[in-house]
Amino acid sequence: MTQPNRSGARLLSLSAAVFSLLNLLPSSTQAQGQFPTNITYAAPITITQGGTYTGNFRSTDSNTPCIRIQTTQPVTITGCTLVGAGDLIDAKNGGSTLVITNNKGYGTQQSVDNRRHGRFLEVNSGRSVRVENNYFEHTSGIAAYQWGGDGSASQTLTVRFNQAKNIDGRYRNGGGQYVQFCGLNQVRNVGNMEIAWNQVVNEPNNSLVEDNINFYNSGGVQQSPARVHDNYVQGAYPYPANGNTFTGTGMTTDGDGSSPTTTAAFIEAYNNQFISTCNAAMNIAAGHDIYFHDNRMVTSALMPNGTPLNATYAATAIFNAYQQPGNVFYNNRTVNNTIGFVKNGYNVPFANRHDLSSGACATCTGTNHLPNPITLQTEQNELTLWQQKLQQNGITLGSGGTNSGGTTTPAPAPTPTPAPTPAPAPVDPANAVFVRAINVNGAAATIDGKSWEAGSSAAGVQINGTTFANQGVTLSPATDAARATMIRSSAYSTALSANVSVSNGTYLVYAYVWEDNNATTYSLALEGQTVQSNYNSGAAGTWRRLGPFTANVTDGTISLTTSGGDANLSGIEIWRAGTAAPQNQAPTVSLAAASSSVTVNSALALTATAADADGSVAKVEFFNGTTKLGEDTSAPYQLSWTPTTAGTVSLTAKATDNAGATTTSAAVGVTVNTAATATFYRAINLNGSATTLDGNAWQGSNAANYTTNGTTFANQGVTLNPATTTARAQMIRSSVYSRNLTFTMTSVPNGSYDVYAYIWEDNAAQTVSIRINGQAALTNYNTGGAGSWKKIGPYAVTVTNGTIQLVGSGGDLNLSGVEVWSKGSTAFQPLNPFQPAPATMAAVLSPTWGDASAAAVVRPDLVATLVPVSRQRVAPRLS
């Protein structure tokens, strides 16, 4: 799970503090979109079936979008006028195949405090999404999260010919959050993506945007980079606009992806105009293979009334904001851009200019620096150039436009330089048996058909060097990809040491070393004896597999050290002398239970301690007698087990090492007591509607007598593990989240209760803890990979103050539902029992396949429903 509140990387002056939205001043006269009042609007609608839809829809509730799409069948929204206090088009739980064209959208005053204006469009796991010729104002733009398409021409993201005004993340009660005209989050490895011929104009003190265009851990592929071209973006201001600190830009590549495949990548931006964008015009803050060229960046540092903008910094920069290694942040450049960017007090290249960021633009070349002065007239000239370009290309922007031209054909991908013929694989030593190999600063790998262990997690391995990597260096001699990746990720020191646990005996040891920079000279010692004197590391890219060196081990450890200059150690390969494989030592294991007694249907924490003297522990399995309860493949080895029948059980743990040897622990006896009789009290679906689970009636998110501070979100496209019923899956995947989540159920009669909670993971594993009524329920629980879910509990709670409260801490906790059982005879009586909606409240809308009337005309039949909104976490991740 990506953390919420994780601000995109931005270039600020070195002394600038991180900007806090809490410091934004309130505005009691905040301007809103001036929507048409001479047409009739229908109530919000929910689309559950594919087709083409048109009409005019309005919502005055920030929690209810004008159009909610809940089908993955192809849907076209066209010719609509949408007016809303929240999202205009919500496709977070549908809309994988979507065309949004020739619509008008207007954001109005929010219905609640501390809520930004809604999106024009928000879509999750899109497959094919085309957004063209729309007009929208006072919205928080277009947001796309993850991708389900294959990146072909028919399964990609296209945003063209749109006209946007005042991208606005402000709250009605003051403050706000940063939003984007077009924000992509984990829309990665998508070919044929295009964002082109859009016009975005943000007015100072009437908008709040950060990066107008943001690629967060998103991008194209090598053969088909994401293309951002021929856009006109005017305005990126703090609020109030004369503030001194701001992090917004015209465009930024961003994201904390820690590998080449998860960061921003393969993006080409050209022929764009970025005007009056305070902090910066175009930044490369993360990623690789990003190419900005032939753009225009003009900022006069003045508002239209001539008053100064104080938060300008530099037009463009290339800086590794997340301090990622060289195989994640590389091959980025800005070339042949035209720039005139005012920053008072700087002189780059002219007085009071900062065209290229000082110290962060080494690969910014061929810049055409506009002459001083840069004025409001200079900015006005850019608008004139834009309007001329539209006319020359026959482009009509916004709703009502039909455009066949103006789309630049993608340049063919450069032909990759043929890879050098790899050197032959090193020869194995004679009369020796492979024991183990360590990838010092890399992941587990297979090289020469042998399993290499990851240096960071290999058992019995200690290396004191400073880790680093530079995957951009060309190796000499050339070698295969797996070996090259291992070589170029290493540890270095002038006095490096590596200790590897093995059984006593005689070994042959190889050391992989390389040079990433300038030649240096050093010596290697094995078991205290010099085995390589005054080795010259050679020019950048030179690597060698030094050895084999003989080591006679009597203390269970092979010790390798260096002295002299900086030595780069990439890998250690160990063979045992002789033709007989060494006797594998079985692992050790012991088991502990959190308690010697537990109640039926109550969770019991089991913890095993396991180690392997001559290898590593592959897994630890937990058993009740001969019945396997589960397993854990990494330390600490833990399992939460919930017994379902009373009696005495005998629990054991079995450890298996990397060679297949096993050891079973001593048994631990636990008494399972009969549970007190409990009856269903109530359950709440925290971000969904009323439903029935296990024969019990669950209330929806609008139930009375409870509160939560969690942010709502949903992602129904995630595959759950383990699989479950449709109703339960829908409840689980629509939830609330927070790093400091609280859920409080009130008006609970005093007495004894059992509490269950449904938690799940939508993205990357988090470590969370939960307390219920002040008592620890979960401690440092790992939520698992995307789709993992668990019904935790029951947790015995004694209510003395009419309240049941669950508090989460640590990482992001996704809480989907809370289920409570009474151990007495208490039955839940809601203050406002739900009443079925009368038939007259269901607006059945008729279809149209021709011209739309002013009123809503829709096909297929669908029912206008007020469904509680679910929030996907795109905004926090991008802002």
How would you sum up this structure, described in words?
It is a single chain. By secondary structure, the protein is mostly beta strands. The protein folds into 4 domains: 273 residues; 146 residues, Jelly Rolls; 86 residues, Immunoglobulin-like (Sandwich); 144 residues, Galactose-binding lectin (Jelly Rolls, Sandwich), CATH 2.60.120. The chain has 4 helices and 70 strands. The strands form 11 sheets. Strands 33-29-26-23-20-17-14-11-8-5-2-70 form a 12-stranded mixed beta sheet, with no helix packed on it. The chain is flat.
Task: Offer a quick outline of the entry.
With 879 residues, this protein is mainly beta.
